[in-house]
Amino acid sequence: SLHDALPISNAFQDLARNLSSDHRFFECYHRLMVNMDYIESMEEDSFLLKGNISVPISRRKKKEVKQHYMQYMLSK
User: Fold this and answer.
1) Are 34 and 41 spatial neighbours (Cβ–Cβ below 8 Å)?
2) For the chain, what percentages of helix, strand and coil (3-state, to nearest 5) are there?
3) Which has the closest alpha carbon to 62: 46, 50, 49?
4) From the CB of residue 7, how many other CB atoms can be counted at a distance below 10 Å?
5) In 1-76, where do the E strands start and end?
6) Residue 45's pLDDT is what?
7) What is the C-alpha separation between 48 and 42, in angstroms, rounded?
8) CA separation (Å) from 5 to 8, 11, 22, 23?
9) What is the Cα–Cα distance from 47 to 61, expressed in whole angstroms?
10) Are 24 and 36 in contact (CB under 8 A)?
11) Per-residue pLDDT tens digits of the chain, which is 76 residues long
12) End-to-end distance of the chain based on CA atoms, in angstroms?
């Protein structure tokens, strides 16, 4: 029934909380988490993923996202 389903916002928050313990996952845009193992390259305002998929990087969080990605790449 409808009452058994989580509202989308809670579902995303729960998922994001669970994935936050895995250092590969990061929220690069509002409600969009990326697995950094799948990033081929970082563009000015997006990531290019394997399979030629482009995902946006939040303007508001750009500095934080890029820093997080660089740290991840250095730790590999």
Assistant:
1) no
2) 40, 30, 30
3) 46
4) 8
5) 25-29, 32-35, 39-42, 46-49, 53-56
6) 95
7) 6
8) 9, 9, 25, 28
9) 14
10) yes
11) 455 555 566 788 888 888 878 889 989 999 899 999 999 999 999 999 999 999 999 999 999 999 999 999 999 8
12) 45
Structure tokens given for 70: 């660089």
Q: What is the model's pLDDT at position 1?
A: 44
55-65 CB burial, b ≥16 within 10 A, e <16: eebeeebeeeb
pLDDT confidence of residue 5 = 57
CA distance 40 to 16: 22
| C-alpha–C-alpha distance, residues 74 and 76, integer Å | 6
The Cα–Cα gap between 70 and 76 comes to: 10
**52: phi then psi, degrees, rounded to nearest 5:** 60, 35
